[in-house]
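Supplementary Text 2. Reproducibility record for the structural model of the 246-residue chain.

All settings were left at their defaults, and a single model was retained for analysis rather than an ensemble. We include the record here because the model underlies the residue-level annotations in Supplementary Table 4.
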Amino acid sequence: MPEVATLVPLTKIQEFFQKVDMKNAPGVITMEIGKCKVVYLRQPKGYAGVVHFGGRRHPVQHYVTITGEKAGWVSPAGVTNLLCQEDYKDRKRVSSEEYHSTIKTVLVNLMQAMWAIGEDDKPNEPTGPQVEKLLSLQPWVKIRKGSNTDEELTEMESLGLANYLLDFSRASNYRIVVDPKTYLENQPAINTKYMRIVEGEWDDVSERASVHFRLRASVVNFAKRNGLRLENIPRTPQPRDTEENN
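Retained model, structure tokens:
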């Protein structure tokens, strides 16, 4: 771990964090910790880190609290432990010293990134598509510069988007965009071998298909609001084997 982490007292880091205005903090901070690459996204009270290890995206985020009495608090322990590992599959027992050194390194890197913003009020932040690539998001989730309305966030919550993404939009200068057609095409309940998503008013075929596939009401309403419907894919007749009678 970088030696600089051991030179900064934890109390000084906590004092620095407590003075930070999250509205002016970087929206995205990336760092490499051991064998992991972590993308920390600004949240209302801290940062949620998306962890990649060996090309795999870990399903649980690494959260760091910046504001309030819990400034400098890092969780969950299992993800911190992952940042200490050398091999994703063959995980070792992590010593207390390694564990706390890793936490210190994360905190110091975040502090340095926020300190740089304090010196330069015009941070060079990544574009929306660059953030998409960093996070390895689902194909129907897009990120752009700007902000979401409360109605948009409520709708995306009903569609099952992770809360850390919605909080990222609430706390930063990025907006989350859902591509309606791609979202529906990626619904596990819809068998795209027999049905396709097309533009048009929701009709009887769509209604019957939604019942057959047991689609959630939020998915059906989302399709209707975006002018999309379900259409049968015509089946190609299979030639029959014939035998000649001699």
